[in-house]
Amino acid sequence: MTQTLEAVDRLKIYKTSPELLDAMLALSTAAAKDVEVELGELIKIRASQINHCAFCLDMHLRDARKHGISEQKLDLIAAWREAGTLFTERERAALALTESITDLHDGHVPDDVYAGAAAVFTDRELGQVIAMAVTINAWNRINVAIRQAPRAALK
Fold first, then answer.
1. Cα dihedral sign for 124, 122, 119, 83?
2. In the 8-state DSSP scheme, what is residue 4?
């Protein structure tokens, strides 16, 4: 028997645990330091796609548009490998690393993916890209667990 999304009342975790929200916001701020806003949005969108987090997808697609990321990039981000030169070398490295961090089906980030990112980012930038991917994964998993609906669905 399949339940509808409305069938189970979910915890309002950010109300019951406001310190969690504060900590997540602080982590998000720290992870975003020294990462270009556009690159950060691509990382957040790709992880949110993989994790099926509608709330974060809605938020970060809106933010990406506000920051001028092209509709073509947003349309093709799920197929970035096949998109030719549409995505820069840094974007491709960050997206590959984000996918590997998000989907640990092999149990680790492959050496070639890590080396590819290390080749185009400084140590500081690489640490921040990793932190950003980890942070959006944490947000995704919380929001998926509580079935946080996109803003439009909340009205």
1. positive
2. P
**Whole-number pLDDT of residue 9:** 80
Instruction: Spell out, as residue ranges, where the chain has pLDDT lower than 70.
Output: 1-7, 152-155
The domains found in the chain, sorted by start residue, are 17-149 (1.20.1290.10)
CB of 19 closer than 8 Å to CB of 133: no
74, 64 contact by CB (below 8 A)? yes
**Predicted TM-score of the model (pTM):** 0.90
The Cα angle at residue 83 between residues 82 and 84, in degrees rounded to 5: 95
Alpha helices in 1-110 (DSSP H): 13-16, 18-32, 37-50, 54-66, 71-76, 89-102
